[in-house]
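Page 37, top half.
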Amino acid sequence: MVRPVGAITRGTTGHNRLRRADRWVAAVHGSALRAAHRPLVVDLGYGASHATTLELFTRLRVVVPGVEVVGVEIDPARVALAKPYERAGLSFRLGGFELPVARPPALVRAFNVLRQYGEAEAWHYWDVLRDRLAPGGLLVEGTCSETGHRAVWVCLDGDGPRTLTFSARFDAFDRPSDLADRLPKTLIHRNVPGEPIHAFLRDFDHAWAVSAPYGVHGLRQRWLAAVGALAGSWPVANRPPLGGPRRWRLGELTLPWSAVAPDAGS
């Protein structure tokens, strides 16, 4: 047996913690999964409970009836606890970044997995996981708060990172830059003056501040106004499936990765 690649995470999880990311995957990439031959989705590092993997399976089955979901965990005890919840199309396996599955996955979800690694290691494991994807496959890697009310994730394909998405409950932050602590490992230490991600969060805070009058109609309206203002100077996705009012109303905002990629000289 191949030794699992990676380190055991804290395992913190909970019901609906990854609902925001699941909802985004189903809405934005459901059509790509439906078009895939025998679509396989891997939930890497699901933690101490099977709950979020089961929820991913349940949500994807609504839009991709034939999808198969495999939860992969590096801790044997966690795999043993999850095994009784297996069913047709849903299974749990011992493993890590090597992805011990029978065929290349159409999508890998890896949440709260890379936070314990250094930035260079995070870039490396992005490459490792991308190399294991099926043609046209996707990696959704991110982090969220313990309740799941604040989350940020990157979507990558075989060529590299493509988009960065912010997602939050409207009452879960005082200003948008509060989401900085959820940035992926490849960006979290780049939130300093001179880096694009710092400039973006600064401008998002400003757009949020000048949109305060819309708050009399609710925080959702303030968010919509702030995103609209921000779109004047940043390439915010503004058309389906990645953007537009339908996604913004959910507390989402997506940018092309190129807009916030780390400065190559830093």
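Page 37, bottom half:
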Amino acid sequence: MDRRRILLVAAAVVATLGTLLVFLYVRGADARAAEQYDTVDVLRAVAVISPGETIEAASAGGKLALQPVPKDQLLGGYQTSTESLTGLVALTAIYPGEQIIASKFGGQAEAASPLQIPKGEMAISVNLTDPARVAGFVNPGSQVSVFLNGSDATSGQAFTRMLLPRVTVLGVGSTTPVSTTTTDQTGAQTTEQLPRTLLTLALDQQDAQKVLFASGNGELAFALLTTDSAVKPGPGVTALNLFR
């Protein structure tokens, strides 16, 4: 009888604990739901705010509005007024719906560049004739191999050799006519007007130095590549191995 009574008491305790745990869970869920829908009125953009635009100009232009945002969606540095941003400008473009946060405003706008330069690389430009730029088929985004037509500093032997196997073209600039004078084997000189075009490449420091040095000590030429083009550096071609 005593054992049966103990079991009944234990069952009652377990049932009570279960009921208490369910109650606490429901209360917690209700609290979380209430917190989710608890909002704060913060400044949000209702029109595009351009880089360099002052917070005062954006406000005067009707580009800001106080709007409710759930507490669990607030961003760090959110603003409820423009007071702390007085005199500052947008560092980047801010689009409709974005919260106004302190980190997107500062003393001066970030200089925008039309070139999409890959991280860790730099942009340099070279001036090429139409044949050297594949008759105008090289465009921004093209992949090219860079070749050098030059001569050996010691022997004076002319050569053609791949300088860089694969390079990205960032931009194609203006074309201008340039006078070019060539001398044939008899010593006769011919001057002609050849159009030259500026092409801008994305390179790391070492490759940029190679291209700049080569363009000042020889003639560069591009070869337009596809994803299937097979390219690799090699010893190049001279008069000694041209027909081998």
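Margin note: The first strand starts at residue 39 and ends at 45.
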